[in-house]
Amino acid sequence: MERGELARRVFEAGVVGAGGAGFPTHVKLAAEGIDTYLINGAECEPLLTVDQHLMEAEAPRLVRAAASVAEALGATRAVFGLKKKYRRQIDALRAAGGEVAEVGNTYPAGDEVILIQEVLGRTVPEGGLPLLVGAVVNNPETLLNVAEALEGRPVTHTYVTLGGAVASRGVWRVPVGTDGAELLAAAGGVTEDDPAYIEGGPMTGKYRFDPHFPVTKATKGLLVVPRTSALVRYETLDVERMLNQARVACCQCVQCTLACSRNLVGYDLEPHRIMRLLAYGPMGLPEVAKQAFLCSECNLCSGLHACPMQLSPRRVNQVLKARMREAGIRPDFPRREIEPRREQPYRQVPSHRLVQRLGLERYEGPSPFRGDLRPSGDLTVLLKQHAGVPAVPCVAPGQVLEAGALLGSPPEGALGARVHAPLGGQVVRVTPEAVILRPAAAGQEG
Ligand code: SF4
Ligand code: SF4
């Protein structure tokens, strides 16, 4: 298959990165000059197990799909990057004929800049994309959705880890648009009296106090933790209060920079300097503030791991990035030779130590696949579940749709992704943000 045909089918199926910001996959797959298709199976966020499940259960399909994608890209190599400890998954992928590169059991091994450096020995330029070093990177769930797209099926479901303080932990296959509270009910309910909810992993996920939110194509996990935990305090602190704390409490001890995963890669990112700028200079001085664009938001610099003053340079970077984007400042950096820091091998954070530090050991353990979740309520299918602009809806209230019917497409030429009906049913409402769909009773959908 030609690269253009691959990108077209993936666009039509609405495939986006299954996790993170949901970058539209067809854009990545249209890249030229690629020699390696790298499947990011490092899954390094504590408690998340979706990709581990898929790499074991769907190994032959993933290996075949990876070979097809590599061929279409003109790449000479399709390689899966996994942590050494994922033995069953490594064995399954190898038994299916896949090439596997083993990386350390550290956090954040799944940062694609770090994975590319470990597996390929190449460093993505500052502010650049993996394609600049000849690589396209997808995670296993995204690859599975590409495989579905090649067989003509759009993205209608996502795999979600339900973990933390729930009665039955595990992985469910969930229709996009399902309410988070339905997921918790499927997991037997919450076992914590005063809970908070994390959509995604504890280090980089979205923290919520309300479980009612629509699952998107990028939802990888729903974790329940005590509202009183340090994790929740850091991630939900009011931004202005957090900035004020940062101004008065940073003692310039440099611990955040020593721990910074992107600094260890060799990037010119020194969170302690950004914190100093915040304390003594006006927000937005570009020469130091621009470093914030290099931040992966891995969270190792914060009091969860490094900062003795319980600050969060990561959240400062988030604010800076948003303000610079609003001001039209772009993440462009002069090209230079980048070498990993000599101390990088000794400063990586073992995954098990991070779990202990976060107080999450009690939630570790088996996370079996529990099957398909059938929601009882309406689905709220967001028109923007991805990086770029929202899809423009093409359905109207009252319309009866089959599963997989097109709900909306991005405007011609704009960065975005299509969205489809996760189940057969009737359109209840269409808003600028979402299509609300009432699923037909089981067995009656098209
Ligand atoms: S670790 Fe904390 S106190 Fe030390 S320089 Fe960084 S932000 Fe400041
Ligand atoms: S979150 Fe902190 S440690 Fe991670 S890349 Fe950003 S500045 Fe570095």
From TrEMBL:
Protein name per the record: Respiratory-chain NADH dehydrogenase domain 51 kDa subunit
Domain spans labelled RnfC Barrel sandwich hybrid: 374-435
Iron keyword on record: yes
A Pfam match: RnfC_N
Signal sequence segment: none
Classification of source organism: Bacteria, Thermotogati, Synergistota, Synergistia, Synergistales
Any GO MF annotation of the entry: 4 iron, 4 sulfur cluster binding
Span of domain NADH-ubiquinone oxidoreductase 51kDa subunit FMN-binding: 10-147
Organism of this sequence: Aminomonas paucivorans DSM 12260
